[in-house]
Write a structure and sequence with these properties.
The protein is mainly α. 74% of the residues lie in helices and 2% in strands. The chain is built from twelve helices and two strands. The chain is globular. The two termini are 38 Å apart. The model has no long low-confidence stretch (mean pLDDT 89).
């Protein structure tokens, strides 16, 4: 009976294990080995050489790409949290329950359109002839159109638009699980509204914030489309540099080393937020 139960358990687990081995472990091992290889002309030399990793910190544009990716990702994550929390709060506590589903549906409507379409839409909005420049000029705020497209501002704006809704959902799911008695108890004990939020509500909603922030970090730092469309080529992020190495130079070892570094950054973000990543609270 015990053997039968064990075999049945392995039967359920084996497909997932094979899938993970085939599409994560094996590709990762190949990429790691590739990052330690070198390229001589067009010939790939397999071995154990850390030259590609030394190049990351020895060439300014490669190190700069890592810094730019981190700056954009951290900015997007922080701004998205600051915008998403009040929105989630309003939906959870100010919108009547019978309207909450409709409001949430409207909130996630942008996700129904293509990622590329949304990026090009922002490019039109932020262009010199776009609606933002025209509005500012008609109000007399500026005399000439501002250069907003193909800048870091455009990249951050596009990302924030995408990820505010994601964070709103995770924070909202956390907020609606909180009993109103927590806030009432804090108020009865003499806490002001701000003190109740600061010392009771905010700590209890940290799992929702951190889950959304981690997902935002992972998706943002590895994104290639948005920086390419909205940011142009003025400053390159790591995914853009990887694509340049693959598409133009054919330098697969350096692209693999950059990918390993990217995975290392995501792993560090996970370790930093792991204590708050409780999926049962979102």
């Amino acid at each position: 009976m015990a053997i039968s139960t064990t075999l049945r358990g392995w039967g359920f687990v084996t497909p997932a294990l094979l899938w993970t081995l085939a599409f994560f472990v094996a590709p990762f091992a190949i990429m790691l080995a590739m990052s330690l290889a070198t390229l001589e002309g067009r010939e790939l030399i397999w071995g154990f050489d850390l030259a590609n990793y030394r190049r990351l910190f020895g060439q300014s544009f490669l190190a700069g790409a890592i810094v730019v990716s981190l700056q954009i990702t951290l900015t997007v994550t922080l701004v998205s949290i600051l915008l998403a929390y009040p929105l989630a709060w309003i939906i959870a506590f100010r919108v009547p329950p019978r309207w909450q589903r409709l409001v949430l549906l409207l909130a996630i409507l942008p996700f129904w359109t293509s990622y590329v379409v949304r990026s090009y839409s922002w490019l039109l909005v932020l262009s010199r002839e776009g609606i933002v420049n025209k509005a500012l000029m008609s109000l007399g705020v500026i005399a000439e159109p501002l250069q907003m497209a193909s800048t870091r501002f455009a990249t951050v704006t596009g990302f924030v638009h995408f990820f505010v809704m994601l964070l709103t959902l995770t924070i909202f799911a956390n907020l609606v699980q909180l009993s109103p008695n927590y806030r009432r108890a804090a108020t009865d004990l003499g806490a002001s509204g701000w003190q109740a939020f600061r010392h009771v509500i905010l700590p209890l909603t940290l799992p929702g914030i951190m889950v959304g922030a981690f997902l935002t970090f992972v998706l943002c730092i590895g994104d290639y489309i948005t920086p390419q469309i909205l940011g142009g080529n003025n400053e390159l992020t790591v995914p853009q540099v990887i694509m340049v190495q693959l598409g133009r130079r054919g330098d697969f070892p350096l692209a693999a080393a950059l990918s390993i570094v990217l995975m290392g950054l995501v792993s560090l973000a996970y370790l930093a937020s792991a204590r708050w990543l409780r999926l049962d609270r979102v």
